[in-house]
Amino acid sequence: MRKNVDQTRKIAIISTFLIAIIFLIIYMSGYRLNGLSAARANHFIPKDSVLIDQVKMDWGDVYMFNTPDKPVTAVSIKHGKILWRSNLSTFYYKTSDPVQTIGGILLNNPNEKATVFTVLVKDRNVKFIEIGSKLNKIRKKVIIDTPITFSWPISMDWNDLQPRAYGDEGILYEYRYKEKNITKPEDLKWYSTLAE
Fold first, then answer.
1. Residue 93 · residue 177 · CB < 8 Å
2. Distance CA 172, CA 167 (A)
């Protein structure tokens, strides 16, 4: 009888040890129990980052962070019923422009599709932002210094988004490259239409 109790105790200790090792491996691989924790575990999200907005999708969540260096967007994907992982992120150049893109992602995986675009407006003349193709156009009213996020559960081509900021008299800003034939990443931003 005592032999059976000792053997049962050994099996319980070994099982507990193996389960702890498995959980440690899962944790070290970046898996977490919720989307935000997974996004914060992403190597490109600094510990002192501030969450500014999020979008929920059927397959996971998209999180927009402000970091000391630049705005960063992280994607957290559900794995099974309880685990999440984030190994995809994008960043935007920090600017002091009157209209700024501070987050977003274009995702076109077989099981995960999304188009997300987050804007921050400081120009009080801008009344609303309009983004999207003809069939998927979204228009949102501007609240100064408050992130405005546009999202679609489909993947769209950036060229089809045509982001524009409107005032009382029409288009004030367009999101585009500075020059049509030169595509430097730092030149993709909001440009005033009044300066042309």
1. no
2. 6
